[in-house]
Every structure is written in structure tokens, then in C-alpha cells.
Specification:
Blueprint (H helix, E strand, L loop, with lengths): L1 H11 L4 H14 L2 H11 L10 H12 L3 H11 L2 H8 L14 H9 L7 H13 L3 H11 L9 H12 L3 H7 L8 H8 L18 E2 L13 E6 L3 E8 L2 E6 L10 H7 L6 E11 L4 E2 L2 H5 L9 H6 L2 E11 L2 E2 L5 H15 L9 E2 L10 E2 L12 H8 L9 E6 L13 E5 L3 E12 L8 E10 L2 E8 L5 H13 L1 E5 L2 E4 L4 E6 L1 E4 L7 E4 L2 E5 L11 H6 L3
Parallel strand pairs: 1-12, 7-10
Antiparallel strand pairs: 2-11, 3-4, 3-5, 5-6, 5-7, 7-8, 9-10, 11-12, 13-14, 13-17, 13-18, 14-15, 16-17, 18-21, 19-20
Amino acid sequence: MKDFCELYWRLDSTTKTTEKVAALKAYFDVATPSNAIWAIHFLNGNRIKRLVNTRLLREWAIAEANVSAWLFEECYDRVGDLAETISLILPPKQTVKDVVEISLKDIVEQHLIPVRELEPEQQRENVVQLWQGFDQRQRFVLGKLIMGGFRVGVSKRLVVRALATHVGIDAATITHRLMGQWEPTAEFYAELVDPNETETAISKPYPFFLANPLKQEPESLGDAEDWIAEWKWDGIRAQVIRRAGETFIWSRGEDLVTDQFPEVAAAASRLADGTVLDGEILGWDESQDRPLEFSQLQRRLGRKKVGKKLLTEVPVVMLAFDLLEHQGSDIRDKTIVQRQEHLGEVIKLLQPAAKVSEGVFNAKGNDAPVAIRKPPSVSAKPVSSWADLAAVRETSKELRAEGLMLKQRESAYQVGRPVGDWWKWKVDPYTVDAVLIYAQRGHGRRANLYSDYTFAVWKDGELVTFAKAYSGLTDAEIRKVDKFVRKNTNEKFGPVRSVTPELVFELAFENIQRSSRHKSGIAVRFPRISRWREDKKPADADKLDTILAMLD
């Protein structure tokens, strides 16, 4: 556990990729398999469900530190993170026995996970015993594990890179083995690092190939005819797997979502074994032949079972744009042109004997909604120039698309987000000038700064809440806003402060829709700060009517 805590602080103390990879490799070089796999589990973003109610943790920390509740809450308000507050306020390490020398595996499996089933008094005894055996920095990491909030600034890609270097196996192989569901056991670690291990799990998806945003002019990519253009959809990226008579649907976040999309699973039941499709799952409006708003699709997410009413109100389709496995063979090394030729063959073979629309498969017959299809083309006629593609791209919002995907015709299906072969050429976002009215402290390194903001626009001469945003400003700008918030606070609502409405910011967002849950009557997708409009006064901010007009 001591080594794992030290790894956390080494990762947290640097922004340099080489130093992070070196720290990870150094840890794997000395960790036992049972400890290494738990470290990978946590570093990859997996968590153990919260073990103890945070109210109880507060009470126990207050008692151990012998401070009043109000003082603890003031400290918490200042620090902004409960695990850090507890680690700072507890008295110094007390026990002679060095609990931190217990392995990470034993801490998790013998000391943490069993706590969930204990009565509160037994929970307190166990947690306090752990607190007393750890120093301040170690208590912080322990607290994050107990509360299910462990995260550190390292990507899965870097963890895989360090592990691949440690064991001498290709990073793509490690990535594939970590896909899907697995248990953090020494046995799985042995399979993970075995140079001779073959992939046997029938449910296992492939690592997704992700595109990079195109920030330069598309002409820099060369001849437009060397690229395939597709719509960039705003849905759930997924792989549909058909193997050994079973169907599995995996999201990009490595969640098994088969039960959330039964119509897609029913359609996939007609696929031949040894078939893996890559595509986008969207709520679909058949009458307009375009996606439903993303908020409608969200109603389907996270459910163990989707009822008939929801199935009717939010029908979904999978737009399959790639084929990764064909007739039981991994074909990712073929070009995208070759893969899509096979994809067309697969879908054509799935068509029922009765005539259906070209390029679609209907699992329930011609009168039922189509559940698997190839995406609509970006243009009815061939597009051969960047100017033509730019004109097509400007029509994206009519289809509720985010822009275009550009894929090099000779590109294989790769792992992760390599630069060069796949680009997302998104349309410009919507923008609105809004006024800052509330601010809240951030988290992590911004816990002492007011960096989370609520913005408003004008309606009938009053400011109404419009959106929340916390990204887009530089560190220097955040410090300036923080200084303004502290000097211009009108009221406090717990960690939130209302401020004098003086600062104007331009907000950018991807989509807009009506919402009965918001005071303004609208909701936006992915709001962020695009720039600080120091040249504008609050009266210059946009009106709600202007934003409502964007709905059209």
C-alpha cells in the first residue's frame, strides 16, 4: 500500500508524460501480480462502491481530531475536498504497527471491502485503525478509495504503455485484453501479461479507434478524393458483437449495454457468428429520417430494462460504419474501403426475402422500425473537392449531426487516438454572451479557487440562469475571476456564492433544446467558456429570445 500511495503522489506531482510512464513502470517492476492488478483497476478509472456514509466519516474525523463541527466544516469549505480535509485535520500517525506496509490487495480485500457489511460502530473501529496507521499523504489516498472517488492524472493509454514496456508485449495487445469486464485477480494479471495468451472471451470487444479534432484547414490533408467523408453523429459509440450464438453490445466507455438496446440486439441476432460491427447508436425519428435529440437517448441509458412505453417513445438504431471482425477473422488491418465493402455484404445478406430499403436490416419485418443500418451518405452525388465538402458540412445541423468525419481511404483500424488517418471536422458551435451570477470552488488543484460558474441571460429585464461551465479559461484568468468573486460576493449558499453581475463571458455549446427542468426553459449540450468578454457590459449579454430563436 505504501508503494501505491507513493505512485499516486509521483503521478500527481508531474505533467510530463515520460515521468508518469517512468513512475508507473517503476511500480510494476516491484509490485506482485495481485497488487499490480488492483493498481491497474484503480488507475484505469474503476472504483469500489462507496464503503461508508460520508456523514459518518465526518463525525469520526471530528471526534478523532477533537475539533468542533463548525470548525471542520469551515476547513472543508476552504479545502474543497473531504478526503483531503480529513487527512489534514486528523492527529499525526499514532500506532506503532505500520498498517501501510500491508499490501494493496490485502488493504482492499481484507480491510476496505468488508467494511460495507459491518455495523456503524464496527465500521468506525476499522476505519480509525487504518487512519492511525497512515500518515497524511497516505490517508488522502486511503480516503479516496473509501469514498469511491479515487482518480489521478494519468490516462489508460499511459498505464498500458508502461505495462507494455514492463512486460515486453505490444501495447495494442494489452489494450485489447483490458477491454470489457474483468476481475482484479492475480490469475487475470497472468493472462494480461502472458506473451502467448490468445483471446478467448466471446464477449470481448476491440479497442476503439478514435478521431482527432481537425484544427487546420482540410486542404492540408491533401487531395479530398483520398478521404472518405461521413457524418459525425452525437450518440453512443458502440460495438455490436455476435459470437457463439450470443450478442453483446459494448459502449466506448466499456459498459455492456445490451439490455438497454433490445431492438439492436434483436437485429444483431441475425448476424453470422464471428461478426463485430462498429458504429453509433442513436434515438431515431423515422418521420424526419434524422436522430432524436440526445436528451431523448439519455432516457434509455443506465436502465436494466427498457419498458414498452420508452421503447415506443425513443426508438433507436445503430448506424454501422465499420466492420472489425468478419467470418471469425480480425480484419482491422484491412483498409477502411475493404472493411466497408465487407460491411455492405454483411448487411445485404441480412435482408429478409421481402424487399426492404437498400443497406438496412429489419429484425421484425418491413413494418417495424429498422434497428441496424448503414449511415446515410453525406451527399447524393460524389464529392471531389474540399469546397464541396465544406458546403455539405454546413448542413450538418439540419441532420442533428456535429459535422463530418474524415477517414483516409487506406487507413487500417487502429487503437486509441493516433494522429493522421481519422479526423473529426465539426461545425462551429453555438455561442452566447452570458453574465456570471454564481461561483463555486473547484476540485483537485483548483479546490482553493472559484472555478465552477453559473451564467445567466436576460429575460424581461431580469437575469435567468442559463448554463453552468467550468472549462475554457486559463489559470491566470481563473485567478482573476476568483479575486473578483471574493470581493463581490453578495450571498453564500454553502459552497456557492452569488456575485455582483458584472462579468460577461462568451459560452460555446454543441446543441440546444427545450427543457421543463431548467428555469430558462432550455438546456444546452457541452457548455464551455470560449472567451472572457472584458469589452462588454452586463447589459450587452444576450436575451433569452435570441437563444430560443436558435431552436429553429
